[in-house]
Structures are given as structure tokens and as C-alpha cells.
Amino acid sequence: MRLRSALQAYARRTRPLVRFCALAAVLLLPLTSLPLLARLMGGTMVAPPSLVFVALGLALYLPTVLLGGERWPGELVPLAAFAGAALFSSLLAFFSADLPLYKSVSLPREVLSALLTLLVGGACFLFFAVALRSPAEYRPLLALVNVGGVLIVAWCLFQLYYIYLHGSEFFPPAVLAVHRMLSLGSLPEFLRMKRVAGFAFEPSWLAHQLNMLYLPYWLGASLAGYSAWRFRLWRFSAENVLLVAGILLSYASLSRIGYLTLLLVLAFLVWRVSGVLAGRLGGGRRRALIRAAMPASFAAAAALGIYLLSRLDTRVAAIFTLTYGGGNFFYLANQLALAERFAYWGLGWNVFTAFPWLGVGLGNTGFYFESHLPQFGWALSEFQKIYLENTFLVNPKNLWLRLLAETGVVGFALFVSWLYIVFASAQTLQRRNEPLLRALGWMGMLAVVALLGEGFSVDSFALPYAWTAFGLVVSASFLARRQAAAEAILSPGKD
Q1: Does pTM top 0.85 for this prediction?
Q2: Hey, what's the torsion of the CAs at 249, 255, 261, 263, to 10 degrees?
Q3: What whole-number distance in Å separates Cα of residue 41 and Cα of residue 184?
Q4: Rounded to whole angstroms, how far apart are CA atoms 428 and 438?
Q5: How far apart are alpha carbons 466 and 179 in whole angstroms?
Q6: What's the CA gap between 315 and 481, in Å, rounded?
Q7: Element at 402 (helix H, strand E)
């Protein structure tokens, strides 16, 4: 009894701090690589300050959950199973006779570093999955998602001004000094490439954060008719305006995988909407026409978008200038500026085929660099420089191949199962009557689809955007299920 009373008193006193940590974490999401935090973490490139508040909030809230006997969302189980499989595979690496030595790289340090990134990502998901305890707590949090979006849009517009209108590719020194305080990324380099990066480390990370969190929420809110702000521009909500701006900025980042991910998300949306419209129209020619016309229109718009992107990005322009008709894969990849990326992917695939069931352990793919890099990779200057000059381990630069190479079929299956369960939870929310829950349901489904594309470029577990989106969806689904169960108890005679 005393323990319960003490826990209730502790929860009342710490609840405002937990809510503050959640709000601060969301507000700081535009920053991916805060230099001060990066130095404190040993020079890592992935250093979002939002994770500091996630860790603090989780430390404050976990005693209430662990000691108070509260129920946890069931969606945590497959992720915990994946973490267990990843830990087991990593520990097996210490007993593997096949693990080659690579320069002076320390196996314990690499395994610990990789496990910490998974712990960081998992903690972010756990915090947002359990820390929100009532529907009223979502509105201020989603309002700060909009605030972060406004800051990203404003900073990117400032960059576009200097790229296309000012006539100079250099920012004023004072502005560059501010950017260096907020990001490790080289802003002048991106300006010369005519790419916007926002506050992110690089333009592809800007596309990643937009595709994984901001665009799914803005698109979901627009579809559900929900807004965290009362602001209206004529009949348009803040989410409607930010959705258009976010799509344009994702395009302006000139991230090829970011653009393809955006097309994948929109294609999924067209498929869902065309199915709903066709179902409402019933049978006959109109239904068939809707089923055919919407995908055809989307394909035409996507082709137009690729063509326009080729006018800005020479790497995409190469698609329209290829004249070689032979079968040399290396030549084609090199012409499209993809040879290095395919070599990284080939390394991951070769390691997976050699260790298919449990993989080689998190962070250990690079130990097999010399023995499993595809042959054409050795002809590329990037890998020659890595071999001759660098002492760090490379990775597959692909989440899906990294999962296969480092956790095997077992870990890959558990991770994909977790994504499927998150998608199913989001799908149930999308069918609810409340606009907030429908918006979060759409956000969750679109975020899972976006990860299918973004996973081909980003392989770090420490970036918080997907974890945050999934955590919010799981939290809302858990609250909705508890509410439905409570209503069923109060109304036992109703179906």
C-alpha cells in the first residue's frame, strides 16, 4: 500500500517533467547532428538533441511503469524479440572462428557502439509508445511537429534564396556560424550542389526526416480533416500548407532515394484511395475506369517529376543520356553514379549469404570488407581509399541488407513482423471516427511504407524519426483499445 501511494505521488510530481521532455524532444527533431552533442558522444555524425530529452523522460517515467504494474502495448513484444536476436548474434561474434581481423578495429567497441544505436532507437520508440496517457496530450505534441516543420521550411527557403535568387552560393559569415552551431553538415558544399539540407547533416537526411515523420503526419492530418492548430489560411489548415511545402522541399533536397520514397508513399495512397472510390461507385465501367485512371495519372505525374528532377540533378539526368546497349552492369552503375552504393549493397548481400541464419552481429559487416566486397568495388577509388587510408568499418548503407547480414533471417523476420504489427495497429486507427486517431492511423501506415523506401539508403538505428512516428501510433492504438475495452465493460449488452 505504501509503495502504491509513493508511486502515485512520484507520478504526480514527475508527470509535468515527462510531458515537457516529450514536447522538447519533438521540437528539436529538425536537428540531426548537434556539434556539441556529437563531441560528447565521441564524434558520431548521428547526434540529434531530441534523444537527450527522450532518455531523461524515459528515466523519469519507467519507475511508474515497471513498479506500478501498468500494462504495456503488445507491439513492444516483437521489437524486444528482435533486440534479443540482435544481441545474441552480436555475442556469438566473440566466439566465431570465421571473424577476420581488420586493421586495428576493436570488436567489442564496434559491437557495443552498434548495440547502443539500437538501444537509442528502441528507447525513442518506447518513450513515445508508453509516455502519452490521454488523448489530450497529443494536440500540443503534434502542434510542435508543425512548429518544427515551419522552422525547416523557413530555413530551407532561406537556402533556396541564396541558391537561385541571390546570385551567390555563399551565406553571410554570421549565418554560417549559426548553422555550424546547429549542424555538422557543410552548408556551402550543399549550396554549390544546389541542394537544400535544412538543419540536417546532409540533404538526404532532410528528405529522410520529412518522409518518415513530417510528411506522413501532414498527409494523414489532411486526409482525416484534423489540425493541431486552429490557424486557417482561407479554408486550408496549417497541415495542408506544410504538406505542400514539405513535398517541394523533399524534391529540392535532390535526394534520389528520398524522391523514390515519396513516390512510393503517394503510390500507396493512390492505391488506397482508388480502391475506396471504386468500392463506393459499385460495379461497372466507372469502377474499372477509376481503378485504371488514377494509377495511370500518377505514373504520368511521377515520370514528369523524374524528368524535371533531371533538369536539376546531373545524376538523374544520366538516366536520359544512357546510350550503352551492352550488359556490363558495372558500366551502367558507374554512369548513374550508383556504383559505390551497389558495391556497399553487394558487400552486405555477400556477408548474408555466407552467414544466413543469425548473421555476423550488429556492426560487424565491415570486418568482412576485404573478403566479401564485390570484385568491381575494388576498381572504385572510394574503396581503394578506404582500404589504404581509413581505419573505420564500412556498413552496407542499406537497412534491409544490414539486417540480413548482421542479424540473419531470424532477426530480419522479427523486425519485419514488428513493422507489420505497427502497420496493422495504424490501420485500425485509420478506421476510427475521431479525426485525431484517423490522422495518426494514416501517419503510421504511410511511415511504414516510407521506411520500405528509406531503408535502401539509411541504415542507422539512431535516427529518431521512424521510431517517433511508430511510437505515437502504437501509443494511440493502445489507448484506443483500452477505451474500447472500458466501453464494452460499461455496455455489456452491446455488440
Answers
A1: yes
A2: 70
A3: 13
A4: 9
A5: 25
A6: 48
A7: helix 399-430
pLDDT per residue of the chain (495 residues) written in tens, 0 to 9: 677 788 788 888 899 999 999 999 999 999 999 998 888 877 788 889 999 999 999 999 988 877 776 788 999 999 999 999 999 999 999 998 788 888 888 899 999 999 999 999 999 999 999 989 888 999 999 999 999 999 999 999 988 888 877 765 567 787 788 888 999 988 888 888 889 999 999 999 999 999 999 999 999 999 999 999 988 878 899 999 999 999 999 989 989 899 999 999 988 988 887 766 666 665 566 666 666 666 776 677 767 776 666 666 666 655 556 555 555 556 666 655 677 888 999 999 999 999 999 999 999 999 999 999 998 888 888 888 888 888 888 999 999 999 999 999 999 999 999 999 999 999 999 888 899 999 999 999 999 999 999 999 888 899 999 999 999 999 999 999 988 877 777 666 554
CB–CB of 118/165 below 8 Å? no
Residue-by-residue DSSP string for 95-111: G-SSPPP-TT--HHHHH
φ, ψ of residue 16 to 5 degrees: the values are -60, -35
Nearest to 480 by CA among 443, 416, 426, 419: 426
Dihedral sign for Cα 135, 137, 138, 139, please: positive
